[in-house]
Amino acid sequence: MYSFILGNESIKMALSVSAGGRVWRKFFKTFNFGPNSALKRFPTCTANGRLYSSSSDNVLVSKDEKSGIATVRMNNPPVNSLNSAMLVSLRSCFEELENDKSCRALILTSQKPKVFCAGLDILEIYRKSPDYVAQFWEKLQDMWLSLYGSRLVTMAAINGHSPAGGCLLSLACDYRIMAEGKFTIGLNETQLDLVAPFWLRQTMVDVIGYRQAEMALMIGALYTSNKALQLGLVDKLAPIEDVQTVAEEEVKNWLKIPDQARAITKMASRKPLLDELRKRKQEDIQTFRDETTRESVQISIQQYLEKLKAK
Ligand SMILES: CCCCCCCCC/C=C/C(=O)SCCNC(=O)CCNC(=O)[C@H](O)C(C)(C)COP(=O)(O)OP(=O)(O)OC[C@H]1O[C@@H](n2cnc3c(N)ncnc32)[C@H](O)[C@@H]1OP(=O)(O)O
């Protein structure tokens, strides 16, 4: 029997391990864990090493049937920037894996070493209509909810640069392994005259602590791998060519812990923030839409784009 308290609501839940899947379903329904409350099955998610139905050109998914470990490779050259299509593909892939009962863990990485993910596609928020920007933001929220709220062991194998939205993706995972060397990671939004939303700021605070997060967020700091390890922004470093192997080894350690107890523990700590975003979703969309389409912000974005091109 597990009993625990979440946020200000006291929830007592009896989970008889022997009751197996039925109890699992009840648990996920009660807490709206993962993308859907129901555990739907996707018939295409089976063969070892075969691409999932959600695999599209921009997100490649393979799963080892024996271990239940899936690897999700972002494949949106040149820098895996998160445009609308990418956000939709990632979300759909996370949801399929979530609903695949034989899947126990996912490793998120880049198909193109040296850049894990360059963050949001800046062109998606440059000179676009308020409606477009609002829809784009909702896609990001939904993708984040599906990853941050996942019952799976989620591991970021950060095989390259990971600024802004790239850092957001890795912060949504349970554990981060980053390539050694000159690569950088961090939430550099203020450098673009953008303000990270509350749910992203909170995950940064949760991972590296209040003082360091406050400072990092204000100055839009990008840290080298070594500094990121020192701050606790990533958990482990590995040579770039070994990041995937080290991630697989680490996942196997995590999978020695019973799934149910691990997932319930994860949910107990993440539920308040998940609930908060679900509750304030529309308000968050409006803030993003209004802030991003402001002329002064558009000019900052333009200057940032010019700086990137001139590099
Ligand atoms: C609450 C209210 C407000 C709320 C608002 C809050 C938002 C918070 C959430 C997150 C916000 C973000 O993610 S904002 C995004 C922030 N991202 C960044 O600052 C990363 C910028 N990129 C880089 O630093 C670098 O590209 C890096 C990733 C290190 C890779 O360097 P490389 O030398 O390998 O590659 P580059 O030559 O720089 O880039 C290759 C090409 O890709 C383009 N490119 C690079 N990054 C890009 C990007 N993010 N979007 C589009 N295009 C990009 C370059 O312009 C080049 O285009 P060509 O010249 O045409 O080839």
Description:
The chain has a single domain, classed as Alpha-Beta Complex (2-enoyl-CoA Hydratase, Chain A, domain 1). The radius of gyration is 19 Å and the shape is globular. Helix 2 (84-99) packs parallel to helix 3, helix 3 packs across helix 10 and helix 5 crosses helix 6. The chain has a 6-stranded mixed sheet with strand order 3-4-5-7-9-12, sandwiched between helices. A 4-stranded mixed sheet has the order 6-8-10-11. A two-stranded antiparallel sheet has the order 1-2. The chain has helices spanning 21-31, 84-99, 130-148, 165-171, 198-208, 210-219, 225-231, 243-254, 259-279, 281-292, 295-310, and strands spanning 2-6, 9-13, 59-64, 69-74, 105-110, 114-115, 153-158, 160-163, 175-179, 184-186, 223-224, 236-238. The protein is an alpha/beta fold. Strand 3 and strand 4 form a beta hairpin. Helices cover 46% and strands 17% of the residues. The protein contains 11 helices and 12 strands. It binds ligand 8Z2. The site of ligand 8Z2 has 29 residues, from strand 8, helix 4, helix 10 and helix 11.
